[in-house]
Design goal:
By secondary structure, this protein is mainly α. It is 75% helix and 0% strand. It contains 4 helices and no strands. It has helices spanning 3-27, 30-37, 44-57, 60-67. The chain is globular, with a radius of gyration of 13 Å. Residues 1-12 have low confidence and may be disordered.
Length: 73
C-alpha cells in the first residue's frame, strides 16, 4: 500500500465517521455521538459545526458531549 492510498483511506474513514456523527445528532442519539467521538479530537471548525447542529436539535446533553471533545492542533 502506498502512502497516498493510506492517507486516502484515513480520510475516507474520517469523513465517514463525521457523517455518522452528524446523522446521530440529527437522530437525537447522544450515546452514539459519545461513542463515535470518544478518544478523538476535532478540528475547531468541525467542532463548532457539530455544536451548532446539536443546538439546533435542542439537545443540551449532546452539546455538552461535543463541547467536551478536545480540539486538534
Amino acid at each position: 500500500m502506498t502512502s497516498k492510498e493510506s492517507n486516502e483511506k484515513t480520510t475516507d474513514r474520517s469523513l465517514g465517521n463525521f457523517a455518522a456523527v452528524k446523522t446521530s445528532i440529527a437522530n437525537g442519539d447522544a450515546e452514539e455521538v459519545k461513542a463515535r467521538l470518544e478518544g478523538n479530537a476535532l478540528d475547531k471548525l468541525e467542532k463548532d459545526y457539530l455544536i451548532d447542529l446539536a443546538r439546533l436539535s435542542g439537545n443540551a446533553e449532546m452539546v455538552g458531549i461535543i463541547e467536551a471533545v478536545p480540539v486538534s492542533d
